C-alpha cells in the first residue's frame, strides 16, 4: 500500500492490533509485505527470517553467532523496522505516516475525521451503515475531492444509475453555510425535490455537503420525515496521479421507522462482495473525465494558473468546486507532499488503454479479502461450469440428431 508516496506494509500483530511499517526490512531492504505473520504475532521477513513485533522492535536475528550477539544486535536502533502510529476506528485503519519521536502524540492530538452519527448512542437502533469499499483511482486527490463536491455532474455522468442525463440536469441553488476555514473546511446546503437516488421527493430533501480537511467529504441527505442518507467519501493520496478512495453509505431511519433512499442498487441488502463488484460501475462512469482533466489542467501555461482562471463557471452549480480550489490555494498552496521515490515525481502520462484505466483487479480485488475469496471460489467453479455447458451442448446435439432421424424415418 502507498500513502503519500510512502510504501507501507499493514498487518495485524499478536495483540490483534493493526500495525503499519515502512515496507522495507532494515537488514537488506527486502519488502516486508512479502513476509508473513507468525503464530507469536511477529512479522517475519521472508528473505532472512528476521522478526519484528508490533512496535517495530527486532525480535530475532537467526544468523547471530549466539544469543548474546543476537541480543546486542537487536538492541541497535538500526535493527528496528520503521513503524507508524495506527488506530482502528469506525471499521477503518488509520495511519499517521510519520516515525518521528512525537508522531504518536501528534496523531492522538489530531485524531481521524469521523462520521459523528456512528458514535451517537441515541441513534444506535436507527443506524444502518453499509460496508466500506476501497479502491485506488487513476486521478489525484484534489480531482477526487472536486468531483464529489460537484452535485451537477451526478445525473449526467452517472446516467441510468443516479438520474437521467437528458431530463434531470437543472439549476442548483447552493447556499454556503460555513466560510472557508483551515481546520473545518466549508459547508454548503441546497434543497432539492428529488431523493439522493433521483426519485421524486414528496416534500423536498435537504442536502448538506461538508468538506472536512484533509480527507473527508460528507454528503447528508435528509427528507421531511428525518430519514437520512450519509455518503462518507474519504480520499488518501497514494502517489502522483492516484488516490485511494474509501467510502460507504450510512442510513439513519426517520420518524415512524421511515427508511432513507440510498444510491440505487447500492442501497439494497446485497452480499458485500456483490456490492464491491458493482462499485466500479459507478466509479468508472466518470473516471476517464477526471484522469484526462488532471493531465490537461497541468499542461503548459494552465499548469501555473489558478482554478478560477482555468475554468469557466457561470452558474451556482460550481460554487463548491470553486470553494474547494480556493481552500487548497489558501491553505495547501504547495499541493500534496509526496515522499520517497515519489517526492519529485511528475504526473504520469495519460493512460489510453481502457484495460489499465479500468483495472479493478489491481485497484481493489486483490487487496480485498472478501472479493479475493469470491474471485477464487468462482475460479474453482469455472471448470464445473464449462463441464455443465459441454454436457448441455452434447445433450442438445443428441436431441437434435434424434429429432432429425425421427423426421427422416417418418
TrEMBL record:
Residue intervals passing through the bilayer: 384-406
Subcellular location: Membrane; Plastid, Chloroplast
CC annotations in GO: chloroplast; membrane
Annotated PROSITE patterns: RIESKE
Main location: membrane
GO molecular function, one term: chlorophyllide a oxygenase activity
Signal peptide residues on this chain, from the entry's feature table: none
UniProt keyword annotation of Hydrolase present: no
The entry's keywords: 2Fe-2S, Chloroplast, Iron, Iron-sulfur, Membrane, Metal-binding, Oxidoreductase, Plastid, Transit peptide, Transmembrane, Transmembrane helix
Cross-referenced Pfam families: PaO, Rieske
Ranges in coiled-coil conformation: none
Domain Rieske: 1-95
Keyword rRNA-binding assigned: no
PANTHER family: CHOLESTEROL 7-DESATURASE NVD, IRON-SULFUR DOMAIN CONTAINING PROTEIN
Protein name: (2Fe-2S)-binding protein
Species of provenance: Haematococcus lacustris (Green alga)
Amino acid at each position: 500500500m502507498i500513502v503519500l508516496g510512502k510504501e507501507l506494509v499493514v498487518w495485524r500483530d499478536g495483540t490483534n492490533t493493526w500495525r503499519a511499517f515502512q515496507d522495507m526490512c532494515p537488514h537488506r531492504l527486502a519488502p516486508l509485505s512479502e513476509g508473513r505473520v507468525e503464530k507469536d504475532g511477529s512479522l517475519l521477513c521472508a528473505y532472512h527470517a528476521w522478526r519484528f513485533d508490533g512496535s517495530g522492535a527486532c525480535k530475532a536475528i537467526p544468523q547471530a553467532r549466539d544469543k548474546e550477539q543476537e541480543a546486542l544486535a537487536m538492541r541497535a536502533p538500526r535493527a528496528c523496522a520503521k513503524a507508524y502510529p495506527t488506530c482502528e476506528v469506525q471499521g477503518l485503519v488509520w495511519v499517521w505516516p510519520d516515525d518521528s519521536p512525537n508522531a504518536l502524540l501528534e496523531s492522538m492530538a489530531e485524531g481521524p475525521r469521523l462520521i459523528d452519527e456512528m458514535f451517537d448512542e441515541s441513534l444506535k437502533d436507527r443506524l444502518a451503515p453499509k460496508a466500506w469499499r476501497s479502491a485506488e483511482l487513476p486521478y489525484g486527490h484534489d480531482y477526487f475531492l472536486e468531483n464529489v463536491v460537484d452535485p451537477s455532474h451526478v445525473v449526467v455522468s452517472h446516467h441510468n444509475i443516479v438520474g437521467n442525463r437528458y431530463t434531470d440536469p437543472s439549476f442548483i441553488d447552493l447556499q454556503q453555510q460555513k466560510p472557508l476555514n483551515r481546520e473545518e473546511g466549508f459547508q454548503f446546503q441546497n434543497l432539492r425535490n428529488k431523493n439522493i437516488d433521483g426519485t421524486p421527493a414528496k416534500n423536498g430533501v435537504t442536502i448538506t455537503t461538508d468538506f472536512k480537511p484533509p480527507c473527508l467529504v460528507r454528503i447528508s441527505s435528509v427528507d421531511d420525515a428525518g430519514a437520512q442518507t450519509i455518503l462518507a467519501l474519504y480520499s488518501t493520496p497514494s502517489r502522483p496521479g492516484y488516490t485511494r478512495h474509501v467510502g460507504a453509505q450510512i442510513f439513519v431511519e426517520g420518524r415512524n421507522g421511515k427508511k432513507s433512499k440510498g444510491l440505487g442498487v447500492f442501497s439494497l441488502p446485497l452480499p458485500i462482495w456483490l456490492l464491491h463488484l458493482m462499485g466500479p460501475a459507478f466509479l468508472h462512469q466518470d473516471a476517464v473525465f477526471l484522469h484526462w482533466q488532471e493531465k490537461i489542467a497541468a499542461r503548459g501555461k494552465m499548469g501555473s494558473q489558478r482554478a478560477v482562471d482555468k475554468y469557466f463557471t457561470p452558474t451556482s452549480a460550481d460554487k463548491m468546486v470553486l470553494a474547494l480550489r480556493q481552500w487548497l490555494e489558501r491553505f495547501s498552496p504547495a499541493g500534496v507532499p509526496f515522499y520517497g521515490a515519489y517526492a519529485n515525481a511528475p504526473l504520469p502520462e495519460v493512460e489510453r488503454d481502457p484495460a489499465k484505466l479500468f483495472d479493478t483487479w489491481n485497484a481493489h480485488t486483490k487487496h480485498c479479502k472478501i472479493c479475493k475469496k469470491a474471485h477464487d471460489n468462482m475460479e474453482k467453479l469455472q471448470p464445473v461450469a464449462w463441464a455443465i455447458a459441454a454436457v448441455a451442448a452434447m445433450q442438445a446435439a443428441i436431441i437434435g440428431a434424434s429429432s432429425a432421424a425421427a423426421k427422416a424415418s417418418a
